[in-house]
Description:
By secondary structure, this protein is an alpha+beta fold.
Amino acid sequence: MLAEKVKNITVNEYQSRPVVVQESASVYDAICTMFLEDVGTLFVVDKHITLVGVLSRKDLLRASLGKQALESIPVSIIMTRMPNITVCKQDDLIIEVANKLIDKQIDGLPIVVEVDYGSRFEVVGRITKTNITALLVDLANDEVI
Ligand code: ADP
């Protein structure tokens, strides 16, 4: 019964809002945003809000190990960039997201919508291991319909 419930739950039921930075932002700006917004993954967008990259905690930590001033390093040179970003859509199943997180060994995925006939993605949400933990708690408390 539990397995049947889990197989019906979609991303839009457990998503969080995305936190984004512009591709022109510096590593210093991105670190500040990560602390202020209290998230572990930032999405990088261009001026049309198109998804162009992902920044994890360790991406920023690695960039901070060098001697260069963090204000002078643009995030675009350290981010994981498209087309190497694993994404999901609002109506994907959570269990598919969980499989992707395990398979790719990452903490979260941007939730995207396709625009301009699928030529680019806009970020509309974020789903992370924390959201999936919240689902687990709801299941344990029998709060999933
Ligand atoms: P951390 O690097 O802090 O352990 P992650 O495990 O999420 O955090 O990230 C590992 C690497 O995978 C990082 O280089 C990051 O840029 C990249 N990454 C994170 N999320 C995604 C994603 N959705 N698609 C592709 N790469 C990602």
